[in-house]
């Protein structure tokens, strides 16, 4: 299946969802600034009902990426996510990143919420082949109720060239011919394994403090700092500060 026109998708969506042509065109217009992403055989296109958390529409590309059919998505709704995502990514998204992005969006005005695009990086695992694919997903709110609460979300997912150890989320505001990053956070697998004290020490190292300076700041012995850093290096799979900083950033 090659690239399909907006008209093709509008015809399908009118039969399958509650989205209308103006809302779909508005959604697709959001991505002209990002890169004019097309709907084609290599991208999953979906419409999600935020009240029921069920998919109103998913195109056939979902099968090649996940091993699940559109029918599977309709039957399972959001319950399909732990089945199609790498477990570590799913856990980081649901326990940490999604709540943060959701809380952030609630602080925005209704006008801003109608113009934001969520950009999320995570990995999918094909249920048959076991192949892991790094994905990037763009989504935005496409319909609101009378209280200006979002009730429909529309999104595009496709394979990303940016391979991450963990997950990443960005919230962008699109206005006229420009975009502004309002929120950005990356969560690394290894960083999640660090203790509170180890995270504090990592932050000091990133800021350029020496081991002695860190010990003085924390009022502990230099030996204690040496032990903490040894454990940090082991968990992060690095052997020096420069490698640690690169991995954290």
Automatic annotation (TrEMBL):
InterPro entries named among the record's database cross-references: Sig_transdc_resp-reg_C-effctor, Tscrpt_reg_LuxR_C, WH-like_DNA-bd_sf
Domain HTH luxR-type: 187-249
Family matches, as PROSITE patterns: HTH_LUXR_2 (PS50043)
Recorded coiled-coil stretches: none
The entry's keywords: DNA-binding, Transcription, Transcription regulation
Signal sequence annotation: none
Pfam families associated with the record: GerE
GO biological process per UniProt: regulation of DNA-templated transcription
Keyword check for Kinase: no
PANTHER family found in the cross-reference section: DNA-BINDING TRANSCRIPTIONAL ACTIVATOR DEVR_DOSR
The protein, known as: HTH luxR-type domain-containing protein
Native organism: Tenacibaculum jejuense
């Amino acid at each position: 299946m090659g690239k399909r026109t907006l008209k093709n998708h509008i015809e399908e969506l009118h039969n399958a969802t509650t989205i209308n042509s103006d809302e779909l065109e508005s959604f697709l217009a959001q991505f002209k600034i990002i890169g004019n992403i097309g709907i084609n055989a290599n991208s999953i296109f979906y419409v999600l009902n935020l009240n029921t958390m069920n998919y109103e529409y998913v195109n056939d590309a979902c099968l090649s990426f996940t091993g699940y059919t559109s029918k599977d998505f309709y039957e399972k709704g959001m319950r399909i996510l732990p089945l199609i995502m790498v477990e570590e990514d799913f856990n980081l998204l649901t326990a940490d990143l999604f709540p943060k992005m959701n809380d952030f969006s609630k602080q925005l005005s209704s006008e801003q919420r109608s113009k934001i695009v969520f950009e999320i990086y995570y990995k999918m695992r094909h249920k048959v082949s076991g192949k892991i694919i790094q994905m990037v997903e763009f989504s935005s709110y496409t319909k609101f109720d009378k209280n200006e609460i979002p009730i429909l979300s529309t999104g595009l997912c496709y394979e990303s060239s940016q391979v991450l150890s963990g997950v990443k989320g960005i919230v962008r505001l699109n206005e006229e011919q420009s975009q502004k990053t309002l929120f950005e956070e990356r969560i690394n697998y290894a960083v999640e394994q660090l203790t509170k004290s180890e995270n504090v020490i990592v932050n000091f190292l990133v800021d350029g403090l020496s081991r002695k300076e860190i010990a003085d700041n924390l009022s502990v012995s230099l030996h204690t700092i040496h032990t903490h850093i040894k454990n940090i290096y082991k968990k992060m799979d690095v052997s020096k500060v420069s490698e640690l900083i690169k991995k954290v950033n």
